[in-house]
Amino acid sequence: MNQIALMLRGGFGNQLFQYAAARTLLLDSSDPRLSVFSYGSSRGSEHPDLESVLGIPVSCPSRLQKMRYRHLASNDTALDVLSGATARLIGQLTSTQVVLQDDPFESRDVEPASLYVLDGYFQHHAWWSPTWAQVARELHSVSPAGFEELRSESRVAIKIRRTDYLSNGWQLPDRYYEQAFDTLDVRNREVTAICEDHDYLPEFAAFARRFGCTLAAPTPLTGNPNLDDFWNLAAASTLVLANSSYCWWAAAVAQEGYPETKVAYPAPWLPNEWSSNPMPDMGLPGWQSLASGFD
Hints:
Blueprint (H helix, E strand, L loop, with lengths): L2 E5 L4 H14 L7 E5 L12 H5 L3 E2 L3 H6 L9 H16 L2 E6 L13 E6 L4 H4 L3 H10 L5 H5 L4 E5 L3 H5 L5 H10 L6 E6 L5 H9 L4 E3 L8 H10 L3 E3 L4 H13 L4 E6 L20 E4 L4
Parallel strand pairs: 1-2, 1-5, 2-3, 4-5, 6-7, 6-9, 7-8, 9-10, 10-11
């Protein structure tokens, strides 16, 4: 038997990578058990997460769980300090391994254990490559009404990520999108543009017109614009990805359900600000890598 206590971080895309990592560690278990925890999200209830989309129960750690699982106690109170000390003692007496990763692209390096506590970001392919297709199938199974009809329209969808990426210097240059239009032969088509920076869309529309393309808004499917963005990407037959975990998983859903899907993605995925190790490739088989311009 293997158990995992998974502490969620970040938005839906990050959570899916965390979930895939947990499932990878449970692959060889005859009696796998997964408990998922969160201290809440600052993104708001309108943003999708594991619980709202996949129905996976997520709870705030109880006092008993803080005492049982190392690292779940937040140390905000004296009781948390005591709970953390108790959990460390229990962890020493049992086969428990805590995996903390602030570097999203750190490779998988764990020892066998009966209990893992996962807290971090797990975007290196060693964490998700054994289970991404399973997770993608789970996602496809909960697709909303109208999804298959949207897919039948053979749409082009492009994800543009800006906002916080601008201040971090992570936004993709126009040159990347130029390559994507040329490589995927996106010309004289209507393009569904997914971008949280609505003020930027007129500028991108002018860019798209250079290729004879017009922009279209995402098709409403769920009543939640944030979730509609995900399913519009997943329903496309041609996708141009930004360096965003959210759109990565949408493309994974498209790829698993429809192997003929054409996907372009940036490489390197991001500027490597986390470690001296090379940035891992984020592509799936059949995806087309395009130069991002990042060192």
